[in-house]
Design a protein that fits this description.
By secondary structure, the chain is α/β, with parallel strands linked by helices. 39% of the residues lie in helices and 13% in strands. It folds into two domains: 12-48 and 291-394, Aspartate Aminotransferase, domain 1 (Alpha-Beta Complex); 57-288, Aspartate Aminotransferase, domain 2 (3-Layer(aba) Sandwich). The protein has 15 helices and twelve strands. The strands form three sheets. It has a seven-stranded mixed beta sheet with strand order 2-8-7-6-5-3-4, with helices on both faces. A three-stranded antiparallel beta sheet has the order 9-12-11. A two-stranded parallel sheet has the order 1-10. The structure holds pyridoxal-5'-phosphate.
Length: 396
């Protein structure tokens, strides 16, 4: 028995490949050839915690599945609010809005505070959703490059991106795809700029639980009341609890005014969008009853990161640091002399492993020369995938 995983939730046997081949989409098992291992979209291969299934089953068994409250069910909003308070963010259930995923939360947050003629600053590289949702709201995206290698925000570069048109700064913490956990000093710098220039901060914290190293994750809204009041925090349940298919997330607005604007922009008051009640029941169970499962998952991910990163780092032309957070490896492959798209295609064809190329369309120009590799799977599958990549690398 593995002492970190007494229930076997993250053992090789827990992964049901034939079911994943029917149900795991978005570049994963159901969308690749059967001999390919997809380390692509960040979606765990493990079944969800049994407490979540019990909660869904109990709610269905009652037989009432009508409309829920506009802002979300009270139990869901209370559980989210408690979690925000645990992260030192002042919170009450009135500040929470249930959304159908973190992506939808970002979309509503951007529509609430951005419009044509506005500029939104975000970092480069970063997950495509942050710039995409800003553009969907009509704003122009201004990208602040992160330091290659460390993913840090270099001195002065952010300050230079502020103009009279800047309305918001969007951050992702921990950062997809670099795996960096933002330092308190970086958050303070962002917060100071936001206060001095009257900007809204939109903080995507969907990866907040997945912290693998010694750097603690700090929610930017926890820095002070003044910062909280101008911050919209978005998050979801896809990464920690494997609930991507339930499309469930939330928005925490730091002020009543932001909460009203976000609600209006979300489409929920007119029932156009909104979170399914069953998904809220599942998410509430995740927050209130699954800490043990979550901690076991994080322990597993720490082991997988230590297992996989050095082996990728040892490949010719690869430089692969351990991520501080997320379950994403982001090796720099510039020294291979190949373009990331061509390299990913070669690994797919010859090693039969699918990875995400550091392509502008996914992560911005700063991702050039990288691959992104998700390791939220069993040790056996990860070992097989890396062994195949090592063999391909030796035979090149
Ligand atoms: C930073 C970030 N935000 C949002 C999302 C989307 O989350 P959801 O599935 O809840 O819409 C992802 C998923 O990869 C992500 O990495």
């Amino acid at each position: 028995m593995n002492i970190d995983d007494p229930t076997g939730s993250f053992s090789p046997d827990a992964v049901n490949l034939s079911l994943l081949q029917q149900r795991a989409f978005n570049l994963r098992w159901a969308e690749v050839d059967t001999d390919v291992i997809p380390l692509t979209a960040a979606d765990p291969d493990f079944p969800v915690a049994t407490e979540i299934l019990e909660a869904i089953n109990a709610h269905v068994a009652d037989g009432i599945l009508g409309y829920g409250p506009t802002r979300g069910m009270l139990g869901f909003r209370e559980a989210v609010s408690k979690r925000m308070e645990e992260r030192q963010v002042p919170s009450s259930p009135d500040q929470i809005l249930a959304t159908d995923g973190a992506a939808s939360a970002l979309w509503a947050a951007c529509r609430a505070v951005l419009g044509p003629g506005d500029e939104a600053i975000t970092f480069d590289p970063v997950d495509f959703l942050l710039p995409h949702c800003s553009e969907q709201a009509g704003a122009t995206v201004v990208r602040c490059p992160l330091e290659r290698g460390s993913g840090a925000i270099a001195q002065d570069v952010l300050e230079q991106k502020i103009s009279d048109r800047t309305r918001a700064i969007l951050i992702c913490n921990p950062q997809n795809p670099t795996g960096r956990v933002l330092r308190v000093e970086e958050l303070q710098r962002i917060a100071r700029l936001a206060v001095d220039n009257d900007l809204v901060i939109i903080s995507d914290e969907i990866w907040a639980d997945i912290v693998l190293g010694d750097i603690q994750m700090t929610s930017i809204a926890s820095l002070s009341d003044e910062v909280a009041q101008r911050t919209i925090t978005v998050s979801g349940f896809s990464k920690t609890y494997g609930l991507a298919g339930l499309r469930i997330g939330f928005i925490h607005s730091g002020s009543g005014e932001l909460a009203d604007r976000v609600l209006e922009a979300s489409g929920a008051p007119r029932t156009i969008f909104g979170a399914s009640v069953l998904s809220q029941v599942a998410a509430e169970a995740a927050l209130s009853r699954c800490d043990g499962w979550r901690d076991g998952f994080i322990e597993h991910l720490k082991r997988m990161s230590r297992f996989a990163a050095p082996r990728l780092d040892a490949l010719d032309g690869f430089c692969c640091p351990q991520p501080e957070g997320t379950y994403l490896l982001f090796p720099d492959i510039v020294e291979t002399g190949m373009d990331a798209n061509d390299l990913a295609a070669e690994i797919l064809e010859q090693a039969r492993v699918a990875v995400v190329p550091g392509d502008e369309r996914w992560f911005g120009p700063g991702a050039k020369g990288h691959l992104r590799i998700s390791f939220a799977t069993s040790e056996a599958i990860l070992d097989e995938a890396i062994t195949r990549i090592e063999r391909w690398n030796r035979n090149r």
